[in-house]
């Protein structure tokens, strides 16, 4: 499962290529030629969509329109539940192990060393899994009226956690990261572009359908 998650992250951090077009406009009276520059949105598939048109039109929920469903949601939940159960079993069996092996009556230093090693590996796996998967989006909803998104992820207790953010809050990392496709405010989220129901939904989320200018903030985002 972890290998599939890494592959999903690798595909998501690869930015779609951007196409640029130049055109010349000549003023009739003053004989001045103007050069215009425009960046077109990345194309995931053939589409004639413009701006916020052609977005998903599936049935609405209280969170908005479902535009994305993560394929590894069940696997992530199952692996985390297995990790939590094995860690809990280790904590329960630790006193029995100390008594059966005679470590319970040994020196305090030996007890501390044994407990520390077992406890380290007991808590290391769940913490590591949570850090890797905490930003994995299992569902993403879009409200086209407000242009807001609701991202559903798993919390540390395997309950669904909601992040509500506006499209203007989406920031693309300057350097591609393994488990982060974009930032919603300060929260890093991971999605797979291939799993969006309509490709233009991904372009709109990432801001690829916005007109490009030579302003400093746009150059920094690019």
Task: Note down, in words, how this protein is organized.
The protein has five helices and ten strands, in the order αββββααββββββαα. The strands form three sheets. It has a five-stranded antiparallel beta sheet with strand order 3-4-5-6-7, with no helix packed on it. It is an alpha+beta fold.
How many beta-strand runs? Answer: 10
Look at the structure and give the mean pLDDT.
76
Output the structural class. Answer: alpha+beta
Q: What's the number of helices?
A: 5
Question: What oligomeric state best describes the polypeptide chains here?
Answer: single chain
Q: Any low-confidence stretches, pLDDT <50, length ≥5?
A: 12-41, 43-48
The biggest beta sheet is recorded as:
5 strands, antiparallel
**Which strand-content bin applies to the residues?**
15-25%
Radius of gyration: 25 Å
Q: Could you give the distance between the termini?
A: 32 Å
- Spell out the helices and strands N to C: HEEEEHHEEEEEEHH
Strand order of the largest sheet: 3-4-5-6-7
The percentage helix is 25-40%
Gross morphology = elongated
Short overview:
The protein is of the alpha+beta class.
